[in-house]
Design brief:
With 325 residues, the chain is α/β, with parallel strands linked by helices. It has 13 helices and eleven strands.
């Protein structure tokens, strides 16, 4: 039986992903111990003696004592890094640019990236799309809606703010935003300074804020209770972000921006919907608001696709086969 140490990162999104992979490894017959990176020390590795150390992005490299120990004993483990952020730190690691350089010097690491373009950044890395643990997003409901249009995530960057403002101007109070509050407040100031909304529209935008979703259950409840969930991809070049998988795992309807790998993973118009520019998004939101039975059928198909093709058990199996000694 493989012994896997799954290192939980500081970030909430990263923790959800690592916990998903942990469930996937367990489903493949592995014994898994999860440990918060802030509480992990060399003595834990000595006691546990894992065969595989699995972490999110740079994981243990933030802890110098732990990093030095793992480097000194790296022949005892198979080091597996799954990158769900951009490896070069354009978004997630702007304060730690040295991690990108140091990681490439380690050698002998199995690195998996969620976007094909990142294989160019990390030599020898393997492409592995994100997945999801459907059990973590389990909900029994279909069609019990409390929200019309929902966006969950950071309402930051020009791309996201322009689309959100377009939705506010067109649909007003039907728009609901769930975000970490400091990020939302920052977005208010940025939208105001850029004059993307007038004073009246800005007040509607402020009232669109509905709070911060902290775990899978809260996310699933909101996604499932929303007629339309909007995804605006921030990172990556060709692949699908985590929002795509967790919305569909919640038996919910999703409209996402079109990316190159989308059609390799889902049937557009059958399991989810895509939009091109902002005006295409507006047209499709209007259509599906008028046709709730169609969006409900798509949500059901999307959920079935998750169960059949996109679970973390399937993703973890690919990793285990790729690193087999």
């Amino acid at each position: 039986m493989e012994k896997v140490l799954a290192i939980l990162p500081v970030s909430i999104a990263g923790t959800l992903i690592v916990k998903g992979f942990s469930a996937g490894f367990k489903a493949n017959g592995c014994y898994v111990m999860e440990k918060d990176v802030r509480k992990l020390c060399p003595q834990d590795l000595e006691r546990y003696k894992p065969g595989i150390i699995f972490c999110y992005d740079y994981g243990y490299m933030h802890n110098k004592e732990l990093f030095d120990y793992i480097l000194a004993h790296k022949n005892n483990y198979r080091l597996v890094h799954y990158f769900a952020d951009e490896p070069d730190g354009r978004y997630a690691y702007t304060d730690f640019p040295e991690l990108y350089k140091n990681f490439k010097e380690i050698g002998g690491v199995y690195s998996f990236v969620w976007d094909k373009e990142f294989c160019r950044q990390l030599e020898g890395s393997m492409y592995l799309p994100l997945g999801v643990n459907p059990k973590a997003y389990r909900t029994d409901a279909f069609g019990q809606y409390r929200y019309s249009i929902t966006f969950a995530g950071r309402p930051l960057t020009e791309k996201r703010q322009k689309l959100l403002c377009l939705l506010i101007r067109e649909f007003g109070r039907k728009v609901n935003i769930f975000s970490y509050e400091p990020h939302f407040l920052r977005s208010v100031e940025e939208i105001k300074s850029q004059k993307l909304l007038d004073d009246y529209e800005l007040e509607i935008y402020k009232n669109s804020y509905k709070g911060f979703l902290q775990n899978e259950k809260e996310l699933a409840d909101v996604y499932n209770a929303s007629k339309i969930n909007i995804n605006i991809t921030l990172q990556g070049e060709t692949s699908l972000n985590y929002r795509v998988f967790e919305v569909l795992a919640s038996k919910a309807f999703l409209i996402t921006d079109d990316v190159a790998d989308l059609k390799d993973n889902f049937r557009v118009g059958k399991e989810l919907e895509v939009y091109g520019d902002g005006y295409d998004l507006i047209d499709k939101v209007k259509f599906y608001l008028r046709n709730p039975y169609i969006l409900q059928n798509i949500a059901e198909n999307g959920y079935a696709a998750i169960l059949q093709r996109h679970s973390y058990a399937a993703r973890a199996n690919i990793i285990l086969q790729s690193i087999k000694k």
